[in-house]
Amino acid sequence: MALSPLSTLLGAARADGYAVGYFEAWDTYSFEAVAEAAEAEQSPVVLGFGGMMMDPAWLDRFGIEPLGAYARAVARRLDVPAALILNEVREPEHGRRGVSAGFNVVMLDTSELPFEQRVERTRELVAFAHPEGVEVQAELGQLPDFGGEDAGSATDPHEARAFVAATGVDFLAVSVGNVHLCTEGAAKIKWERLRAIRQQVDVPLVIHGGSGLSPDTVAALIREGITLFHVGTVMKRRYLEAARATVGNLANQVNYQALVGSRKPTDLLMPGKAAVIESVRSLMRLYGSSGKAV
């Protein structure tokens, strides 16, 4: 199936009262796990890779174009609607290369820059991406990292309005109490701030840090109009737990060809993939997107 515009997926979600997940992959096993979960649940999905969590030198040399080609090839084989994002790259050039590599959504991380530079860099990426039919997500405010010393900064509603108007961005990720790298359901959402941003901004709002949200919080966010959650950390946690258990149970004498890269049940990474599939399927059911692939 051809890639679907993210705006189309989120418009359908808003009309029907559910949300879509972006489940961030880091390799082919995890990417295919997300794709297979979406087909099993018959759910629309946002596929993709995250630049922030990858080594910049590797991403620059071996990452963007190969990942884009691979991801589009997989997406074409799916029977559910899917968008494809290159998420949170730090370099403007990487965002532009993501557009050229076939991602239909790109996001530039400008969280460490002052407001004026954030506007300028995002506006430049929008100007490059939109003529190619590629949508752009941006973040305003800065999420804290779970357990880190930086408290982050909440999104200012009036700055959000000015930012969207000045850049033409299609989607806005907000900082309203959500937390990066958290898997314990500990995030405390600032509801009044979220509502104030919603009143000022007419593009879809996005919640990053989806691993750190309780089911009740997710349901409340969907009622408030949130249609896209970004998730990554909990997937890696489940993957590592399964892989660690598999390695710990290996016999002294092993078949290396069967264990490494075979994609057979004997492959030591397949239990990790299976754990990601189940984690993603559970979140799709929580978001209400299961059965919405039309």
Please outline the helices and strands:
Blueprint lengths: L5 H11 L3 E4 L4 H14 L3 E6 L5 H21 L5 E8 L2 H10 L3 E4 L6 H15 L5 E6 L16 H11 L3 E4 L16 H10 L4 E3 L7 H9 L4 E4 L1 H16 L7 H4 L10 H18 L7
Parallel strand pairs: 1-8, 2-3, 3-4, 4-5, 5-6, 6-7, 7-8
Helix pairs in contact: 2-11, 3-4, 4-5, 6-7, 9-11
Q: State the strand order across the main sheet.
A: 1-8-7-6-5-4-3-2
Give the amount of beta strand, in percent: 5-15%
Low-confidence stretches: none
Helices, by number, come to: 11
The major beta sheet can be summarized as: 8 strands, parallel
Q: Note the overall shape.
A: globular
End-to-end gap: 12 Å
* Helix percent band: 40-55%
**Which H/E pattern describes the elements?**
HEHEHEHEHEHEHEHEHHH
How many β strands by DSSP?
Answer: 8
Number of domains: 1
Mean pLDDT: 92
Q: What is the annotated CATH architecture?
A: Alpha-Beta Barrel
Structural class: alpha/beta
Could you give me the name of the CATH homologous superfamily?
Aldolase class I
Assign the CATH topology: TIM Barrel
Q: Can you describe this structure?
A:
The protein has 294 residues and is α/β, with parallel strands linked by helices. It has one domain: Alpha-Beta Barrel (TIM Barrel), CATH 3.20.20. It contains 11 helices and 8 strands. It has helices at residues 6-16, 28-41, 56-76, 92-101, 115-129, 157-167, 191-200, 215-223, 233-248, 256-259, 270-287; strands at 20-23, 45-50, 82-89, 105-108, 135-140, 171-174, 205-207, 228-231. Strands 1-8-7-6-5-4-3-2 form an 8-stranded parallel beta sheet, sandwiched between helices. Helix 8 (215-223) links the parallel strand 7 (205-207) and strand 8 (228-231). Helix 2 packs across helix 11 (270-287) and helix 4 (92-101) packs parallel to helix 5 (115-129). The protein is globular.
